[in-house]
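Allow me, if you will, to draw on your knowledge of protein folds for a short while. I have a record of one protein: its chain in single-letter code and its fold written as discrete structure tokens. I should value your view on which stretches of the chain appear to form regular backbone elements. Thank you for your consideration; the sequence and its tokens are set out here:
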Amino acid sequence: MPQLDSKISGIVNKNVASVAPSGIREFDQEISSVPGIVKLTIGEPDFDVPEHAKQAAIESIKENKSHYSAQKGIIELREGISNYLQKRTGVYYDPKSEVIVTVGATEAIYSALTTILNPGDKVIVPTPAFALYFPIIKVAGAELITIDTSDDGFVLTPEKLQAALDENGDQVKAIILNYPTNPTGVEYSEAQLKALADIISQHKMYVLADEIYCELTYGVEHHSIASMIPEQTILINGLSKSHAMTGYRIGYLAAPKDFITNASKMHAFVVTAPSNPAQYAAAEALKNGLDDPIPMRATYEKRRDYIADRLKQMGMQIAFPQGAFYIFAKIPGTINETSVEFATKLAKEAKVGVTPGSAFGPGGEGWIRMSYAAADEDIKLAMDRMNQYLLELAE
């Protein structure tokens, strides 16, 4: 096993060296060795990819569609994305010049942020939030500005956004809005988005709208800020959650042409082009599978209701989710432990895996995230074990 020569060990991108690995993944790996543990940690749909989408991938291989695709993605998929977004948002994105197919929404986030940011720039992120945003902002040399939303129902208020902009001025180049939100499952209403859009439109800044969970809402309609300020919006989405295609790694960016022209360079530098079989599967999913998320959504909603009822019976406060497949629960005030301490003991003593709320930034401490993208029997067993654990602590 080779060891790095000491004379070159200090040659490293200092921004990369200074960021920690994903707290979500790191904690999940740490507790995975607990024998018999039931994990509600990772947002991984427990459904299979729709058969017609899988068949499209198979056919593409049989037909030897094995060469590099266009760097922005195959035109069939970009056209499918354009048609889908026009139906969902009312905004037409030219598939040739305003859409990029990325390797998951993760690459879309990376390519978007590294395209627009320079050292000294600032990015606003309402927290608790998907933790991946934080290190990417830092690696790009920019400064993260967090706004704690825990006192406002986990929704960014116009007043707090305006205050952050007043304090940081023109250095703010972007705000990231993820809704339905990971980790809380909270969705923004049309009125709430409109109030934020009115403020954003008065400033020289982008809004990155991460709408990866937009097809998974319960009893509410999803609205996109892209329909309000398309000229300032970078829309991020993909098929990982809507069609259970996490391993296919297909996401996308949609935005005005001038942004896409530069973002497509960064995208090409990072990945060249996405996988062909995955792209043909995604194209089929968007062409003939827009109803595929419906049964998944119905199942998730039943699981949400079950887990929410069980947690309430245990006396736990929750942020009731209107979308995604996570539930954010407050650690009982009688337990004097950090979220990491509580989650670690819950894993080792009750054999239930949850994610510490501190992994999601300010406002997350004192909370835990549970994913209900897990089998019904696993969720029931996890709730039974957690209930027993809390009862024993109370004795």
